[in-house]
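Example record

One chain of 173 residues, shown exactly as stored in the release files.
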Amino acid sequence: MPLLEIENLYLDWHSRSSNGLAKVLLKHYWKKQVNFLTHNEEFAPVNDSSAAVYIGDKAIQNKENYKYVYDLAEEWYKMTGLGFIFAVWAFKNNIESEFINKFHLALQYGIDNKSENIEKWSKLFNMTPEYISEYFSKYIEYQINDKLIKGFQMYLKMLAEIEDKIYPEIKFV
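Predicted structure tokens for this chain:
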């Protein structure tokens, strides 16, 4: 359904960040008020006046089943010119520097060897290796930079206003 005709939006119980981003975009970018609903099924009961937030594999594997698909990160970029952080590895403040170093080594190993996983993911999700390769290289940022942090801080500020909450300051290492 065209975005401006949506009356109800089913939120995906798998992703608080995606649901929050949908709320931020609806209020600040599309200037549209909707009813936010929850559901316990794999797929929300979408109809003529409703839409749903789907994330990850479910979204990628089923996007061809819907006439209208909006990529939330792409819409965020159009609104802000900044990237979006959907997930992070989070640690308590008292994390040891040795652990941080080991974590960075493991991350780098994954980045350096992502091509080994392309064939596995391709078979697992019944997608071409070319699509998986593009997804790994175009849609995932493996290193956090200043623009991503700025976008994340902007998102948290907007979401805090919508949800009337205070979010703690986040330190990136």
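Notes: The CA atoms of residues 19 and 88 lie 16 Å apart.
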